[in-house]
Design a protein that fits this description.
The protein is an alpha/beta fold and about 500 residues long. The protein is built from 16 helices and 15 strands.
Length: about 500
């Protein structure tokens, strides 16, 4: 194992900590995945890329990693089972589909987008609907320990009692009084003892499509149960890392901590890691702001806020250019700058490959092996400092400057140094940062990612046709035709081929 002293920022302690896994050589990591009722958007891309970076690096330095990322496909609300409507069920009713058809369709779309972004698949990808029994067992344990109560067929977590015995709010830094104050404007306590209490199990109303039998009622689990139940099933009562977006700190991850302690008497997660948000003109992305851009729209350039299409690797590079804990503000200028930066990096790599046999230039300084060793250590130091991908990219840009100097015959390099140089560049740009170019992936991987992107564009066209947006439908078809694609509409959807 590479004994790299990895520091990661633990949201629970609010400081960088030396990473010490529970088991020698093995790491358990759980990351909250998407709720599959719509296409993945830029906000989904950031945690996917952030924890793909962590997954890649932990494996690179010698750990065997079990990476679990869930799919929320159960028929309940995205953020709480107490207010609002079930988005999967709503879409199923509108489109006259089974809820699981909706969930499977968007799960497939999510996988396509992740493949295009070159995110490695997780070790295990459990679905909430496949773990209802485990979630019911969690609810029963919390009831048995006295931290939950039944009310009209639903079960709620007793936050006030838990806070008395432990402390509710250790992750977010909130107190129960703060939470109560923030809840006063909500209408009525209803079935709950306290407005801050959250649902562990909800009795299904007659119109609710997805439901399961339980000791309390025919119903469905509360949103917070699935990650606690599935994390424990696949990683044990204690595991190393739990990750997700910063918007999940409260209430989701706070409730997960409470559920774990209430059910088993001790903490389940040792390191909590959260990526920050992506904003657009300083506002959080959301449909209410009309700034909600899906990944297929980025790849096709079809959203009104986009001035062009952006490749999946441009999106990945754009996200990696900022530290995962910093806010990133979207803009076409920023994405175009990322596009140019990525091209500069790939151009440097292509030049470096040409120098594999070395290049002697009489009377010019020589690139020494010490420079390559220092570059390697600089990149490791950046990764070991809480996954500082911007510093790695900065070091690789500096490497491109040296490569250009050699290519312009202003410096010399031996074959041995050039090969070591290429090894460092390949390791950090492709293996760890996960960027791709022709030599950075197999033919099969490139063809699959290529096909996924074309399919997403054509599915976007089908949606435009269904909405009678003929201008957008024609634009996608014409743009693809200009690139050499022949598109045929079929009774089942579409077929395409590349003619040049």
């Amino acid at each position: 194992m590479n004994n790299q002293p990895l520091l990661i920022y633990n949201t629970l302690s609010r400081q960088k900590e030396l990473f010490r896994p529970l088991h020698e050589g093995r790491v358990g990591m759980y990351v909250c995945g998407p709720t599959v009722y719509g296409d993945a958007h830029l906000g989904h891309a950031r945690p996917a890329i952030t924890f793909d970076l962590l997954f890649r690096y932990l494996q690179h330095i010698g750990y065997k990693v079990r990476y679990v990322r869930n799919i929320t496909d159960v028929g309940h609300l995205e953020h709480d089972a107490d207010e609002g409507e079930d988005k999967i069920a709503k879409k199923a009713r509108v489109e006259q589909l089974e809820p699981m058809e909706v969930a499977q369709y968007y799960t497939n779309r999510f996988h396509d987008a992740m493949a295009a972004l070159n995110c490695l698949p997780p070790s295990i990808e459990p679905h909430a609907t496949g773990h209802i029994i485990e979630q019911q067992q969690l609810v029963r344990q919390i009831l048995d320990h006295g931290y939950a109560y039944e009310s009209n067929g639903s079960v709620y977590f007793d936050v006030e009692k838990y806070d008395h015995d432990h402390h509710y709010g250790i992750l977010s830094g909130r107190s129960l009084e703060n939470i109560k104050d923030a809840s006063r404007e909500l209408s009525g306590v209803g079935e709950k003892k306290n407005q801050a209490d959250f649902a562990l199990w909800k009795k299904a109303q007659p119109e609710h499509i997805m439901r399961w039998p339980s000791p309390w009622s025919d119903g469905f689990p509360g949103w917070h149960c699935e990650c606690t139940a599935m994390g424990r099933k696949y990683l044990g009562e204690e595991f190393d890392i739990h990750g997700g977006g910063m918007d999940l700190v409260f209430p989701h991850h706070e409730c997960e901590i409470a559920q774990a302690v209430a059910s088993q008497g001790h903490q389940m997660v040792h390191y909590w890691m959260h990526n920050n948000m992506i904003t657009i003109d300083g506002k959080k992305m959301g449909k209410s702001y009309n700034n909600f851009i899906t990944l297929p729209e980025f790849f096709a350039g079809t959203h009104p806020l986009l001035t062009q299409a952006y490749t999946p690797m441009t999106i990945r590079f754009f996200i990696l250019q900022a530290h995962y804990r910093s806010t990133v503000d979207f803009g076409n200028d920023a994405l175009q700058a990322a596009e140019k930066g990525l091209a500069r990096l790939m151009d440097g790599w292509k030049l470096l490959q040409r120098l594999q046999e070395g290049q002697k230039t009489k009377g010019q300084p020589q690139v020494e092996m010490k420079y390559v060793d220092d570059l390697r250590q600089q990149c490791y130091d950046a990764m070991n400092d809480d996954l500082n991908s911007p510093q790695v990219i900065s070091a690789l840009f500096d490497a491109c400057r040296i490569i250009n100097t050699v290519n312009d015959h202003k410096a010399s390099i031996t074959a041995e140094v050039a090969q070591a140089f290429a090894d460092v560049f390949r390791t950090f740009a492709f293996d760890i940062l996960g960027l791709t170019e022709n030599s950075g992936a197999s033919n099969k991987e490139r063809e699959e990612a290529f096909g996924h992107v074309v399919d997403m564009l054509l599915e976007q066209r089908m949606q435009a046709k269904a909405e009678k947006n003929w201008a957008l439908s024609d634009k996608i078809r014409n743009d693809l035709a200009a690139l050499g694609f022949e598109v045929k509409d079929t009774p089942d959807g579409f077929a395409w081929s590349l003619n040049k």
